Amino acid sequence: MTRAPSTPAVPVAVAAPRRCRGAAALLALLACGGGVATRAQDLADPQRAALQHAMDRVAPAVVQIRTVGGVDQVDGAQIPNGPTTGLLISPEGYLVSSAFNFAQRPSSILVRMPDGSQQAAQWIGRDLNCMLVLLKVEPIAEMPAIETAPLAELQPGQWAVALGRTFVAERPNVSVGIVSQLGRMLGRVIQTDAAVSAANYGGPLVDVSGRVMGVLAPMAPQSTPPGEAGELAGAEYYDSGIGFAVPLEHIRERLPRWIAERDLHRGLLGISMIPGNPHAKPPRLTTVWPDSPAARAGWQAGDTIVAVDGQPVPSQTRLRFALARRYAGDAVRVALQRPQSGGEPASGPREESAPPVQTVETELTLVKELPPYRAAFLGALPAFEALGPRSPAPPAASATPAPEEARRASAVEGAAPGGVLVRAIWPASPAAEAGLLPGDLLTALDGRPIAEWGAAHAVLRSLHPGAPISAVVRRGAEEVALASRLAVPPERVLTRSELVAPPLAADAAVLRGELKLPDLPQTARYAAPEAPEGTCGLLVWLGSAEETAEESVGRWTDFCREARVAVVVAAPADADAGWDDADLPFLARLLPLVQSRLRTDPLRVAVGGVRQAGQTAYKLGLARRGTVRGVAAVDAPLPRTLKAPGNSPEGSLAFLAAANDNSPLAVLLRNDVVALRGAGYPAVLELLRGDSGSELAPTSEPLRDLLTRWLLGLGAL
Amino acid sequence: MAGARPVRRRLRGPALTSLPIAPSDPATALAASSRAASPQAGAATRATRRVPSRWRPSPLLGPLRLWTLTLWTLIAAAAPTPVGAADLHDVIRDCQRKVVKIYGAGGVRGLEAYQTGVLISAEGHVLTALSYVLDTNELAVVLDDGRKFAAEIVGSDPVCELTLLRIAVGGESVAHFDLDDSAAAQTGDRVLALSNLFGIAAGDEAVSVLHGVVTAVAPLEARRGSFQANYRGPVYVLDAQANNPGAAGGALVGWDGRLLGILGKELQSSVTHAWLHYALPVDAFAAAVRDLRAGRGAQARSAALLPPDDPLTLDDLGLALVPDLLPRTPPYVDAIRDASPARQAGLQPDDLIVFVGGEPTASCAEVVAALQRHEKRAPVAIGVLRRGQLQQLEVGLTLNPLRSVRPRDETAPADAASPAASEPSAAPGPAAPGPAAPDPRGPAAPDADTIPAGAAKGTP
């Protein structure tokens, strides 16, 4: 009787017969197959080896830089004084580093060469478009060579290793990440998620083959400024997973030019474009800066840029992309579309349907800075009715068949058909010399037809004092052509006798009300005369808490009627401390609120205040230059911490500084006015005869009178 | 039926069925089969006795048995663990069990009341960072599986800023890192940082894992506010954002699961002025932790550098720098004393001192401090920038062979006279004996014969 088949206690294989041997071989094969497959640990080793090899290839070209001297703080931030990093990019000894490392303007720069020796480096210059610096050292016997990774081969997701030589001089410090995206910051830089910080600014970003993709530099993600960024911009993003590298391919292209020109600046055109969403709006010009490359190439307001160097630019963002990598001195070919003469400049609110256009090809050379802008002055004061309602004119006006363009103009603007009415002429001004008379209808300026005052201002923005100007006016039934030369804005305010401004009727209603923003503590009260929309200007008077009381605002009523302005009196948040910078956000939000509610003329917006409030008025005016057109500061010198930026066509501000003639501030104010005129702004200093010791207050008659005269002269062409 | 055949027939069936078709691990398969075999093994031994005596292993099976035994041994030895991502997952899981969450003092003024710790012994020793969180009687440690223990402080090392805690695990043993089985990392190694940053893990949730690379192995030059970190030795600087609130005391491990270091506190690097992500290497604290476990207090460890007994000063060299008015006044040379060691070495006014003894110096204060780290007797290499060129000079008091340092000795009047005579034109060095020196020098100076002999004797 056979028992159940038995197996010995020892492993089966020991006594395996031939068939079991076959099974054992099969199992052995399976087991070996499992052994061949790599573990995560084994996979890590080839990766580690590849990255190590890439680092070793580039490490000799990564040098340590030490600086001596220079300032301790820049823009209030303490500059670290540890070693920084640079990259040797040519066998002649040129090396590139980040401008962040030299923000303190050191007096001496020492570079540790790949063989350990130290050398003093010579400063060549900066690339202000990418915030890099170029230095030169004497080449040593064996200069390291690096290979550039072509930009066309880079892809998001590939390995990126950031090297620096900050902590230890003998070995570079390394951070590993990937390429996040290409063509960031208007097409200028590579974005990576490797840890980019002051530990490796100026070092290379390397791919896994050991080729250098770019040079690491800080950049602020939110800013694509029209001008040049500061050296420290973007350094606070070091721990955020976002870092930038300037492509080495681009640096090598520019290197001969960089060595020759020493400092490379961003190229400027000198134009302003229509407001709105820059990704959607076409690049249509509103202003051409006088004496800029655009002006010299004959560009005009109303032109639309269609192509740059053959590349179409359908939106303003595309134009910025095309121009961001251009430097001063670059020549660009730009194709424009210009509306045929007979059309209107594009300051009208509606698009014309299929206007005839001509394509103009131009070539211009970009510059590094535009000449300072000075406001030009003609001397014609607008009639208040001409600013007129936006609704169409009543049908009776079109009983006589008007020319096609005039009818179109009146349908659009509702203004006097085909021109703007002049109410007064500034004495001894270019308009007076040309023979312009009050009551004339200005129909064309500098060859461009004018339908409203905004258009006239737009034409003058592109011209500078001394430029010839031609005008066509309709006087009665005839058309008169006039010519003159533009002048510098006058340095005084109109006197009573020169004013031609009938005040609103004494019984014209003055609306009063209160303005408050829900989340802010400041208050404001307004007094606005009831008048056709757009005929009243706006004065934002920065007063005190008492002044916003109901009855004190009532005292402005006569002033409103006479000066034809709506007055908004605002009070600061902290009554004891007065006006300070914390109130500026409230004021910034107040302006559009008032303008939309009270429907004031956008060309006559002024802010004013006395002493501390006057200084806040300066700050508000310069911060909101396009909206605010005038600043009246009484007994208030320009804040010392405020550096008035140069004037620009869209942001021309008229300044009024007033004080008692025996005030101790008179000298300061005189200097301030001279400084503002030097920056290109029309500025007026008026010293009022008053009792010594008496303060100027808005209730005082001399000040009221001055403000009235100044406001009525605001908005002069 | 011959003798061997019935054996083969008997063995074939059960041999095949007792083995799994595709073993994931032949070693386990072998174990399974032997386990499967054991109930029958007993039967086999019983059966063996009843096997007819005609059964005898064939002589051929001897070498065959040896061959297959070798084959199976080799396979078992080379058997790898499961493949790919599952492996890293196991490593991480294994390490997470050894990292604990610590809750203590804090919670006011934005200071968090939690941090991380690492188990380093089976009896429940926990290593963590020395911080205000431990400043309480109610210190709680929560393990990876949610078990909560009260912890008591065993001891602290103020230099490394680490504290050893003990939790009462009772008889159970806990998974822990072995400090003796740790590893050292190099620049570029991929590492994992395990910690409870931001206190996001609670209860039985495992701590968080971050991945990154060792950016550098560098001396710790960092501060928090105006307080410099005590530890100045080498640390692992990381590119992962490992140092966040609550992460101090966490574990830095390699991809093989071995402990590399302990995550440090939130400090700002003095070099880059940026937040520093770093970990203290095991080598730095292993000895201290051993002392703490053994109950010994923190041993005074010899400082890396003892200040010299007789440090060098600017006056010794005959050097004056520009007035030190700014926080970092560049160290320009203002004046050099005639016939001083500085003059001899070739230093000139308006030189900028950029290296002292190989150390870079960016300010007057740094030059003074660097000189003080050198002995007076030894020459020191000084690098200066002169008109844009870097010059390396060697300055030293001993380089001046004519300097006299021996006082006048009554027993050796010749010696006293001749060393003084051997300095005909040199101004007195700073340590030269005062009143005695000028007298013998004067009358002895013209005597040219004594000068060489004096020089030989006068040379220190």
Number of domains of chain B: 3
Query: What portion of residues of chain A is helical?
Result: 10-25%
Number of strands of chain B: 22
**What structural class should be given to the helix and strand makeup of chain A?**
alpha+beta
Annotate the secondary structure layout:
The complex is a heterodimer of chains A (about 725) and B (about 450).
Chain A: H1 18-36, H2 40-58, E1 62-68, E2 73-74, E3 77-78, E4 84-88, E5 94-98, E6 108-112, E7 118-120, E8 122-127, E9 132-136, E10 159-164, E11 173-183, H3 184-187, E12 189-192, E13 204-206, E14 212-217, E15 243-247, H4 248-261, E16 271-273, E17 285-288, H5 293-296, E18 304-308, E19 311-312, H6 316-324, E20 331-339, E21 357-365, E22 380-382, H7 384-387, H8 404-413, E23 420-425, H9 430-434, E24 441-445, E25 448-449, H10 453-461, E26 468-475, E27 478-485, E28 510-516, E29 523-529, E30 537-542, H11 550-554, H12 557-563, E31 565-571, H13 584-598, E32 605-610, H14 612-623, E33 630-634, E34 654-660, H15 666-678, E35 683-688, H16 701-713
Parallel strand pairs in A: 30-31, 30-32, 32-33, 33-34, 34-35
Antiparallel strand pairs in A: 1-4, 1-6, 2-3, 4-5, 5-9, 6-7, 8-9, 10-11, 10-13, 11-12, 12-15, 13-14, 14-15, 16-17, 18-19, 18-20, 20-21, 22-23, 23-24, 24-25, 24-26, 26-27, 28-29, 29-31
Chain B: H1 4-18, H2 26-50, H3 61-78, H4 85-96, E1 99-103, E2 114-119, E3 125-129, E4 140-142, E5 148-157, E6 162-167, E7 190-195, E8 208-219, E9 222-224, E10 227-228, E11 234-238, E12 251-254, E13 259-263, E14 267-269, E15 275-276, E16 278-281, H5 282-293, H6 314-317, E17 319-321, E18 333-336, H7 341-345, E19 352-356, E20 359-360, H8 364-372, E21 380-386, E22 389-395, H9 413-421, H10 438-444, H11 450-458
Antiparallel strand pairs in B: 1-2, 1-4, 2-3, 3-6, 4-5, 5-6, 7-8, 7-12, 8-11, 9-10, 9-14, 11-16, 12-13, 13-16, 14-15, 17-18, 19-20, 19-21, 21-22
